[in-house]
Amino acid sequence: MKQLLPPLLFSSLLFSSLPALVVFPVYKTIFRQQLHNTPVHLAVAQLYKEGPVKLYRGVVPPLLMRTLNGTLLFGLQENLLHQLSLSSQNALSASARSALAGFGAGIVEAMVFTPFERVQNVLQNGQNDHHVPTMKSVLVRLRSEKLAIGFYRAFLPITARNALGSSLYFGLKGPVVAVLKGQGVPPMISSFISGAVTSMAISLALYPLSVLVANMQAQVGPREGKGVIACWRMLWTSRQRSVALLYRGGSLVILRSCITWGITNAIYESQQKPSG
Questions:
Q1: Taking the model in full, what pTM does it have?
Q2: Percent of the chain residues topping a pLDDT of 70
């Protein structure tokens, strides 16, 4: 494992930042759909009206997250998997051990990255441009609040989303790769397709949690003190109790997931081989 972390670190630094920059306008379009319940063409028009200068407002937190996330998530999952393999012996299947290790890694990931996501969502909300115009002003504002409504706003739904998502991702990607290799697909392409397809399915399944997080974290002010249940009721009512409206922006998740997690998984699998 000690040999795995350095190449993963450098790969994350070199390759994770580029997809994050490329996909950020797509991510921001999805966020505006989640927040304002608008069709994609209206979200794009809104961003176009704000201009190219503001298009990348809020890019720093996700850029840092994507750079560090691969190293933390994959490295921690690998360590937990090693410990489970030693303790459980043959009691659990390989896929079950990977899923359980992914669940634990997802919890730690939520603890580390919730503040990043909070800052990112405040910056992406155009309604905050006047009273918190810069990242520094956002940090000052959130630091003045209690953790539960400041940096760790929406921590519970983020933990549920990340833990379940990581568990499913690590539990499913191995079997998918095995099926693809059995069909004669080259290893690198198998890894890319496995990461893209698996993350796409998981992102769509857990998309309502992402919408809830976006709506909870985007505001700074009197509304930010409401709890998870109250916020979910408000969100569900604002979407006219319609699943279709709740999933606005979900179609773009496919594009984002295919690019980011397909590349991430291909990099990870290629770095595993020398240490195996």
A1: 0.83
A2: 87
Task: Write the Ramachandran bin of 242: left for phi over 0, alpha for psi from -120 to 50, otherwise beta.
Answer: beta
pLDDT of 164 higher than 70 = yes
The phi and psi torsions of 73 (rounded to 5 degrees) equal -65, -50
In order of their start, the domains of the chain are 5-275 (1.50.40.10)
Task: Give the side-chain half-sphere CA count within 13 A for 146.
Answer: 6
Task: Find out whether 195 and 262 touch, Cβ atoms under 8 Å.
Answer: yes
Residue 209: other Cβ atoms inside 10 A: 20
Is residue 4 within 8 Å of 78, Cβ to Cβ? yes
Q: Exposed (0-12), middle (13-18) or buried (19+): which is 227, by Cβ within 10 Å?
A: exposed
61 burial (CB, 10 Å; 0-12 / 13-18 / 19+) is: buried
Tallying the residues shown for the chain, one arrives at 276
Token pair in block for residue 59: 């890019």
Burial class (CB in 10 A: 0-12, 13-18, 19+), 28: buried
The CA-based angle 258-260-51, given to 5 degrees, is 100
Task: Please give the Cα distance from 42 to 63 (Å, whole number).
Answer: 26
Q: What does the pLDDT average to over 139-151?
A: 92
How large is the C-alpha radius of gyration of the chain? 19
Distance CA 201, CA 267 (A): 20
Structure tokens at 99: 């899923």
CA angle 54, 219, 67 (to 5 degrees): 55
Token pair of 39, please? 């069709």
What is the rounded distance in angstroms from the CA atom of residue 100 to the CA atom of residue 118?
A: 27
